[in-house]
Design brief:
With 235 residues, the chain is an alpha+beta fold. The protein has a single domain, classed as L-fuculose-1-phosphate Aldolase (3-Layer(aba) Sandwich), CATH 3.40.225. It is built from 8 helices and 7 strands. Strands 3-2-1-4-7-6-5 form a 7-stranded mixed sheet, with helices on both faces. Helix 6 crosses helix 8. The longest helix has 23 residues. The chain starts with a helix and ends with a helix.
Length: 235
């Protein structure tokens, strides 16, 4: 995994409205006790303009390895470092602030499986349950990260009420696509609430008909689409 993929991930999240300005970050495991993570430089311009140089190598405690002059690690670095310590199956972490997820969390709207084929991965995410960390705090200390991890359990996503989301993956691509799917689920949930509609849970017989499309379709194809979309906008 290289810096360019993490930088692309940050720009995609910004392009799709999951992060705004300078808030949010992406990391990927880079060997034992190390990760590549999006940092802030002295000429910070926000996640939409993340460069490869903004992605620095650190240990899981947040110390920059090698030349890090002019760069600072995120205040909420423990979200990344402590998750990577606690869950060896996780290789990438996204922390973002999607407005629709924020509104659902503050309003107490449960992210339920209300649709099916529209977005099968998002439906399955809702079916398995989307945990919520109830504290609206900056997770800037390991003990707060441990609280979040406990709330998250073994799930790949977690809503941070009044704050944002934490999403994990076996790869950066998987984590980013999961974040996009979580946001799609929240957008539909919020619009239904605005319409005053509370649909029934998706029937079990309909769930049984929905295929597992596989990570090559769910993650890699969707990732490639967003990379191409990003490149077209940067031309």
């Amino acid at each position: 995994m290289n810096r360019a993929t993490v930088a692309q991930a940050c720009r995609i999240l910004a392009m799709e409205g999951l992060v705004e300005g300078v808030l949010g970050h992406v990391s990927v495991r880079a060997g034992d006790d190390r990760m590549l993570i999006r940092c802030r430089g002295r000429d910070e311009h926000g996640l939409m303009f993340t460069t490869d140089d903004d992605v620095r190598l650190t240990d899981l405690g947040g110390t920059i390895v090698g030349d890090g002059e002019g760069y600072t690690v995120p205040n909420e670095l423990p979200i990344h470092g402590e998750l990577l310590r606690a869950r060896p199956e996780v290789n990438a972490v996204v922390h973002a602030h999607p407005p629709d997820v924020l509104l659902c969390g503050v309003a107490g709207l449960e992210l339920r499986p209300v649709f099916g084929s529209y977005n099968i991965p998002a439906m399955r995410m809702a079916l398995e349950g989307v945990p919520v960390y109830p504290r609206s705090v900056l997770i800037r200390r390991p003990e707060l990260a441990h609280e979040m991890i406990a709330a998250m359990g073994d799930r790949p996503v977690c809503v941070l009420r009044g704050h944002g989301i934490t999403v994990t993956g076996a790869s950066v691509e998987e984590a980013v696509v999961r974040a996009l799917n979580l946001n799609a689920l929240a957008t539909v949930t919020l619009e239904l609430a605005r319409l005053g509609v509370r649909p029934e849970r998706l029937p079990e017989e309909d769930v049984a008909e929905l295929p597992d499309l596989g990570s090559a379709f769910n993650d890699l194809s969707v990732w490639r689409y967003h990379v191409a979309k990003l490149r077209s906008r940067e031309m």
